[in-house]
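Hello again,

I reread your note about wanting to compare the complex against the isolated chains. To keep things tidy I'm splitting this into two emails, and this first one only covers the full assembly. Below are the input lines as submitted, including protein chains and any nucleic acid or small-molecule components. They are followed by the predicted structure of everything together. The single-chain runs will come separately.
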Amino acid sequence: MLSRVWSDLRYRLRALMRSRTVTREIDAELQFHLEQEASKHRQAGLDPIEAQRKAALGLGGLGHVREEVRDAHGTVLVTRLIQDARFALRMLGKSPTFTVVAVLAIALGSGAVTTIVSAANALLLRPIPGIEAPDRVVDLNRTAGPQGREPRTSSYPLYVALRDQSRLLSGIAAWSAAQLTITAGAQGTTAFANLASDNYFAVLGVRPLLGRFFATGDDRARGAHAEIVLSEGFWRQRFGGDSALIGKAVSVNGSPYVVIGVAPAAFRGVAPLVRTDAWVPLGMTDQLRPATALLSNPRGSWLMLVGRLAPHATIAAASAEAATILARLKATSSDVDPDAGMAISAATGVPGDAHGTLVSFIALLLVVATLVLLIASVNVAGMLLARATARRHEMAIRVALGAGRQRIIAQLLTESVVLFLGGAAGGYLIAIWSTRIASRVPLRLEVPVTVDLSPDYRVLAIALGVALITGVAFGLAPAFEATRVDPSAGLRTGTAGAGTRRSSLRQVLVTAQLAVSLVLLMSGGLFLRALYRGLQVPTGFTTTGVSTAALDVSSAGYSDDRAREFYDQLKTRLLATGNVAAVSFIQPLPLSNSVYSEDFAVEGYQARTGEHPDGKVDLDLATIGADYFKVTGIPIVEGREFGVDDKATSPKVAVINQTFAQTYWPGVDPIGRTVTGDEGMMTVVGVARDAKYASLNEAPLPFIYLPLTQHWGSATHLLVRTSGQVAALGTAIRDAVHGIDPIFPQPVSTTLDAATSVALLPQRIAAIVTGAMGALGFLLALIGLYGTLAYRVSQRAREIGLRMALGADRVAVMRMVLREGMRLVAIGGAIGMALAVATTRVMSRFLFGVSPLDPLVFAAIPAALVCAAFLAIIVPARKAAATNPLDTLRNN
Amino acid sequence: MTDTRLDLPQGTLDLLILRTLSLTPMHGWAISERIQQVSRDTLQVPQGSLYPALHRLERRGWIKARWGASDNNRKAKFYQLTRSGERQLANETRDWARLSDAVALVLRMS
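Full-complex prediction:
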């Protein structure tokens, strides 16, 4: 069977590829037959000419037989397709304006879709580069129970349990991001590194470019392996690609680490969107993050896990196994959160908590882009319809000459497919260009994010596939219309007649365009409103006039005492600078989407069912320096804020927010009450007014501030308030840091405004994308509207001329065209409004409480649509009114 | 003479070609001559259909073609049965025998 298919295919391929040779062979074969036949007839006594004639007659027409033989080759479809494509190109070449406009319209729509598909491909579909068999690699995200909280990171003991007990995952690796200061020579460099488990490279299947990777068992030998692996990029940029570096020591946070290897350039870590410069063994965690005891804390939440599926294992089976392991752990230890679960999914290169948001966001943009492509396609379908009418004479001739309707339809479809393929090619170029621009947009994030959104062969394949489908779908109606001809009628009259059906189809198309573009514009409007609202959301603190810089003292290798000294000196130096009003520190930075939380026992508060079984409550917190509330302008409503007297050794204190007080101590004076956390009991000394903490759209939540001096963290953000120019603070901060410690990595400072604006990034992107696409779609719809009406007017020139000859005045004619146009606008607008009501709800999670039925958007945008549409209608209406009745009557 | 000739029933041309080629490889004209001769001039091969049929059979891999010299030393395309062509011939011959038996039975019905 298979061999037969193969011989068939080989035969057809030869006939196709070497068609000239094959044709020659057929001719030779038939010629031979004729000669044999003729010589037979000659022997029977016929004269040579008569013999020739009889032989040819027997064969029944050489050309005919040749065609039939070729049919038998089974290549007809393909050769016809090539013929049709050539013919289509010739026909399109004859009307260059039409072709250029149509291809351009499709290119814009297709470019929109291709750009979003490229982004989706780059962010969600493209496998993690540089690793072996990426389709077998999975992410393991800890989930925090049925409440549906976002995926979380795991603790080291949990990781070890999973790693040692899992059979269906042939290996599980753990990693955590860590900022390091690498010093070789005079100046320290900040490196964005990963603490990685000893099996990290083995599980991912990465081979070293130079040297070696970590040895098995390094995790267990705590602090014994001061080793570092460099990324190829960092090795080249920082060390000039010096291969003699292997085996030598560099200073990492002040301690010597041996460079044992360099990773290949293709491998950029498990989360390739974030730059990774180096890897150090997980066993060094205690040295690099002193005073955290992360490795032994069973409740820690800091490790990302990736695993590799064992041969024949499936994700579902591995998930079930992980659930069993987790259940066993819960049964034997109270250290595992009883609600914890483990979600295993194909590795995507985007960390678990960002993945879901990204998927829904890109899906939204893809819908928007698809709508633009639809509008553009409808425009082209409209143009094809008009062209079909103009070509009725041509079609009539072709039908009269014996062309089958199917053949003509096939040819017209080929024409529209060629147009759409051309458009898709243009769209691909647009996508290359637009993704390049998008990749260059600077993101003010704390980690260096490198996004390569450029389209690849997969995106091209999708774009061409979409072009094929849309080309056939939108070419079908025009092709059927064009061939709905009675040849004799077509030949006789040339242009007139049969117009109403065709133009009613165009009217339907234009109405649909107006409706869809209205939906797009309203979405853009809603996002703009959300952006505006987001900018207006009271954050509870003042960002203007404040500069911020990330400081990581532990990555500079400072001891706790040295770090405290550093903070104090920095504060003193900065306050001595002119114009600096206040200096403080905070971790985490507000509105940066990062949440620190801890379990607290609240005095006098009994946990309700569903909360923590030991009576504790999970509270979001921030550690802050003295004067934090002065820098940010958050008012203290009761009590006091932290001061210089709240030292590490003094009694432990806390400041809570209003929601905390109302939630846990209603009607009670909170000052003097206590909360007990991991580091003991704290007395509440003040109540601060509510503010936004992690994100702008969070509901008011109980929040607790702890003094930095008493709750040591390795990384903090410096905050400096100035009465002068914020921009000037950057130099002041760098000078101050350099003055204290010349090898401390130079901090990069930004304004607090800029740093917190990341919170509005999705709204910004959505507003730009939907706004731009809405405008594009609307423009295309207006062109469609104008085109339809102009076409109708030219088609009805005779009727209009007749009316005017019979006494209708210009105003009446204009009113007639206007009424027709506005009727389309009204219907399209109404449908669009209904669609918008039905669809804008899906965007609500990005809208910051702006109603999906926001009255302003729902009033202003349709009004704008009507005004703009009026302008598109008035031109053909005036043209109709300018009809000279005598001319039209004479011409027709 | 024309009265005694029959048109070929649908689908039998392939069978006749395969059978003719099962004796020896031959070129198209010879096949048509041979069929006519063997059927004692009863079967007239429609020459217009002969060549499309040959190319179709070749595509299916039942026969294969090679260029060779004819009796009068002219270049001609010779067709030859393949292994799978032999199997096909056996199958079709059996089917044909069953069909003609069945038709004969029905016609003899009294």
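For quick reference: Chain A touches chain B through 29 residues (CB under 8 Å).

B.
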